[in-house]
Amino acid sequence: MKILKFIISFFFVLLSFISVTSLKISAKFLPSADENTGVSGTIGPNIPEPLHIDLVRPLGAKKGELEFNTLGIINLGRDEFSTWGPEIEYAFADGYAVEIELPFENENLEELKLAFQGTISRSTNRKFIHGWQSIHKAKLDRPYFQNDFMYVHGYKFNKKWSTLSLTGLRQNIFNNQYGTSLLNNTSLFRNINRKMKLGLETNWRIDNIGFNKSENITAFIPQIHYEIGDKYSVQLGTGFSRSGKEIKPLVAIRVIWEL
Questions:
Q1: How many angstroms separate the CA atoms of 196 and 203, rounded?
Q2: Which is nearest to 123 in space by CA: 94, 153, 163?
C-alpha cells in the first residue's frame, strides 16, 4: 500500500512537470536566449547558492548543465545525528532543471526527493532574476509525503554583494491528514575574490499555520564557498538551529562536481 501511494504521488508530480513544460513551450513563459529581457544561459547575474537550501541549478542555467553534489550536516547536542544526501542536478532546457536526491540519516536511506525549477526572467541590467521551485519528498518507512512550492528571486547589488531568497509553502501529508508550513530562506553573499565567497544563510519555518498551535523553527549558518579548479568546489558552514526554546549547533559541508 505504501509503495502504491508513492507511485501515485510520483506520477502526479510527473504530470505537473509535463504540464509546466508544456506551458513553457506554448506560452513562451521563458524568453529565448537572444532576447534582451530573457535569460541567456549563465550570463545572468552570478549569485551564489546557499549551502543548506540550495537551488536545483542557478537561475538562468544553460541547457545541458550537469552537477553532482553531496550535502552533509552534523547536528550537535544531546541528540546528535547526521544527515547527508548525494544528488544530481540537470538543466534539460535553458532556465529549467530537475534534481534527484537520496537523503540519508546516519547510515539509513530515509526518503526519496525529486525537485523541479524554472526561471521566469531577468532584468535588462542583469542585476535581478527570478523563478520558481517545487520539491517533493516521500518517506520510505511510512506514508508521509512533503511538497514545497517556492518563489525564488536574486539580486546582485554590485560586483561584491548579492542576495538570494526563497519564499513559499510546504504541504505535509501523513495518513490522509494535512499540515501546512510557511517557508523562507534568505542569504547574503560577498565575493572576496574569483574563488572565494562568504555568506550568511537564514532559514525560517512556521509549522501548522492556520492552527491554534504553531511551531517556529529557525537556523543561521555563516558559510564560506571555495572553488577548486574549474569543476570542483566546496562549501563549509557552522551555525545553529532553533526550535522553540531549544538551540542546537550544527556543522554543514557541501562538495560539488560540475560536468
A1: 23
A2: 153
Q: Any idea where the domains of the chain sit in the sequence?
A: 2-258
Closest CA to 146 of 155, 134, 158: 134
Q: Which three cell numbers stand for residue 104?
A: 540519508
Digit-coded pLDDT (tens) for 201-220: 999 999 876 554 567 889 99
What's the CA gap between 89 and 54, in Å, rounded? 11
The answer to whether domain 2-258 has CATH 1.20.120.1760 is no
Cα–Cα distance between 134 and 160 in angstroms, integer?
Answer: 29
Length of the chain: 259
Q: For 67-115, what is each residue's pLDDT tens digit?
A: 999 999 998 876 677 999 999 999 999 999 999 999 999 999 999 999 9
pTM of the model: 0.82
DSSP one-letter string for 142-196: SSEEEEEEEEEEEEE-SSSEEEEEEEEEEEEEETTEEEEEEEEEEEEEEE-SSSE
All three cell numbers of 172, joined, read: 505535509
Classify residue 167 by burial, with Cβ atoms within 10 Å: 0-12, 13-18, 19+.
middle
The continuous run of DSSP H or E covering 49 comes out as none
